[in-house]
User: Fold this.
Amino acid sequence: MAKRPFPIEFIAERNEAKCIACQACVRMCSNDVHSYDAETDKVTSDDSKCVACHFCEVICPTRAITIKRNTSEFRPNANWNAEVIKNVTKQAETGGVFLTGMGCDKPYPIYWDHILLNASQVTNPSIDPLREPMELRTYLGRKEDRVEIDYSKKEPALKTKLNPQLKLEIPILFSAMSYGSISLNTCKSLARAAEGLKIFYNTGEGGLHKDLYRYRANTIVQVASGRFGVHKEYLEAGAAIEIKLGQGAKPGIGGHLPGEKVSEDISQTRMIPVGTDALSPAPHHDIYSIEDLKQLIFALKEVTRYKKPVGVKISAVHNVAPIVSGIVRAGADFVSIDGLRGGTGAAPTAIRDNVGIPIELAIAVADTRLREEGIRNRASLIAAGGIRCSSDIVKAIALGADAVYIGTAALVAMGCNLCQKCYTGKCNWGIATQDPYLTKRLNPDIGARRLENLIKAWSLEIKEMLGGMGINSIESLRGNREQLRGIDLSDTDLNLLGIKPAGSAW
Amino acid sequence: MKYLIIGNSVSAVAAIEGIRGQDKEGEITVISNEPYYNYSRPLISYFLGEKVLLKDMPFRSKDFYEKNKVKLILNVNADRVDTKKKYVVLSDKRKLNFDKLLIASGGAPIVSEIKNSDSDSVFTFTNLNDAVKLKKYIKTKKVKKAAVLGGGLIGLKVTEALIELGVKVTIIELADRILAASFDKKASNIIQKALEKIGCGLITNNTVSEIIKEKNGKIKKLVLKNKKTLDTDLLVTAIGVIPNKILAEEAGLKTDKGILVDFYMQTNVKDIYAAGDCASARDLLLSVNRPIAIWPAAARQGKVAGCNMAGVRKKYAGSFAMNSVELCGIPTISGGITCSLKKEDRVLEYYNEEKQIYKKVVLRDNKIIGAIFVGDIERAGLYIGLIKDKVDVAAFKDCLLKEDFGLISFPKEYRKHLVAGEAAIL
Amino acid sequence: MDKILIKEEYCMGCRLCEVYCLVQHSKTKNIIKAYKGEYPKPVSRIIVEEKGYVSFALQCRHCEDAPCLDACMSGAMYRDEKTNAVLCDEKKCVACWMCVMTCPFGVISRNIDDKKIASKCDLCANEEEPVCVKNCPNEAIVMVREKKK
Assistant:
């Protein structure tokens, strides 16, 4: 059989009665789906190119466009469904590896949706967040085993020297997204929002662009395996340093920025030649054992004079519990665990969809393990990987996290509709691209405003849920598994999560 | 403070606005030798062609003079100025004293010296009365054919109006083409073709040497320079306008072609100013003083004069020849130096014969010094602005006549300056 | 006075400003009727300039020292006392195009679809906010309000 065209996945359906042929969709689509025929004065679509990013649907002034799934059907087959058939056909056609963007979209169980929260009623009254103070502030960093107070002077003073801490007004941070995978305007939006909300954002493995140094007080700088953009000023600029050992979307492999996205600016920031692929190796080639990791952690602490927390980011894999224990014992001040559903700019689909475990389980077992070993206080845990809403955050903290990282949610706030084509560099929303025509579309004034709106809305919801539980401080929620109940989960799941089934009392 | 203004057209009105912007109390008196409280001279051809009614001829409302506390004296001429004793003698023998005087007496048509041109079927066409007379004559005498001497702006505008009234017109032009002062051959041809299409006749390289009258004084025919004859019912002479400077000359003010003024619109005599068609002010392209008889220059000069008269120093940036006129439905805009070019001048041209669109830009030392637009005048103001600001266009001269030429082709700093700061003042 | 500020670094070139301006200055003010039903088709007073990946919308700057006010021969151009905007009285305009000639931004158009008149931005006289400012999806056109004394 001769060459076959790729199947059409989406249809940009146009309501002709409403279409005024203003051609906004024609101009705006970076995939050239829409075109205007001057002779007939009509706009038509080449649906084969549509990726369902929804930009045209949003920009159309008469709302004439609807994006629909193409209902070209196969005979129903539980095992060989349409997607699997198309994938095998495509690989036979091209011999290529599937690349994709964003997080795992497979229907593995979402444990957040099987966990229910408690509320106080008679014996322990709930708290009204509109009338009582509610503290969402938390501190990330190593906490001492014991605190000694000096009562000898007039005023009691703290004798114990505290380790450096990151102060967060809300237990939410913006995930590591490298400059290169996302545009500078997106980085600016994240940095500005972090500054406005008094939380932090993470540079990812792309280095720190010079325009972002002004937000240093709210920046966590990442040291990844490619060491892109890592130099003296970079390490001194961050409020904390994070060593990236792994990422939830692609455990076991390194980062990948296609050459198309390496512009002049990226080249300068990452310290690599223009147009070359930026491939981060899978392991850090100077970390082959836990002792090596300890060396790097302390090398970074020495360089920054022990003034900043130094943490480690890992992906959630099967042995996540002992791994976290080892990392904490190696001296990390915080451990970020990125689960199965973490996002990415580019990863092989097979890896993204099949490697790793969900963050819900990972956080629970890591927290339990650290408590059992009596070293839970030595590091903060940050949960990442598919946190979608304020209830997910409350559940994550109750399972043992100190704070959460949000990546996908932040991008969706700025416009992303998860078309998963980040790796092409043609993001219509101006987020995952370096094309100057497209990056203009993300106005940092608007981006920062939307992020702040989202986080503010969530913090109000978190306060409501906390108040409902009779808790007025996020610190009282951390690891408070008693506030959670599982529903429709197996005994093993309940065991791993360390929570009781819904219906059972203390 | 007594302000006295001789003249009541655009310079005078702008001067009133200039004065009142600084001085709300001083006395302003305006002397006009016409019977109308206000009207726009360029509109007289629209009036003749019945496109604008008499009541719509004014360019300021009736209460403008009242609101600005201006005493308006109509139907009186200013006969003499005594610059030392500071008074003006009117034709009704009144003496008006002044502290500051503005002479805005405008221009007068060059009167032809052809034999028999004093016939009552020979008309000039520079003020509203001319248009009223001409219209009345055409209607009462049921004029069928007319001749227009002069293929310049006034000649062509009056031709258009006459054709509107159903009169068959023949234009007689001395040069080899119409609008010779501002258009080159290609541009003129486009208009010429359009005129011929609506039945207008054109005779170039010729002029009228004699007018033959009937016994009752009416025109019968014209004898041209080349001895040919042309039958006609009336003749309109539109052979040019010269500044009304007699009053100034007799008062001892310095004049050349017009009344000489400095950058503050003041004449060589303190407290006496001049503005508009009668004044010889700065031509910023040619770097000399000369009369530039166009409406925007007159308005600006009047405003500047008014400001200075009221005691606020304001400099006149200068102007240059430019005009916008739509003939036979074809819009045209021209400005600067477009003809009699130097050898080293560069010319950029765009000519679409099918659509009858012609665009021409003249560059000297990488600066635009002139431009012509016929048929498509979109964004012509950009080029006039570049001429005025004497911008070096070397970096983007290839884009000048492209479709997408605009502020986006300008260097970013100039563009930001234009958008952020004051617009170019003409 | 209140001014419209253009931010060329955020203009996407979608030209929705032109669409909404056209609708605002149409007879029906209904977007579908304005484009499909009205004749003559209304004219937008805002121009989007585009070159490579740079673009921005341009409209009348309502200059403090407006050359078009000087140049208008019929008195059609005037300054609104309340808003300080420069407006064109369409009934008085005689289509001489002197304003087109003198506008250094080239933002006055020759509108010949119905009665011949000079068309330009009027700051959306009867609206709270000019429709281009209101509808720009990326806030590339913003209104800078004059500080009330």
User: Anything to note?
Assistant: The domain at 64-120 of chain C is CATH 3.30.70.20 (Alpha-Beta Plaits). The longest helix of chain C spans residues 16-24. The CA atoms of residues 74 and 93 of chain C lie 6 Å apart.
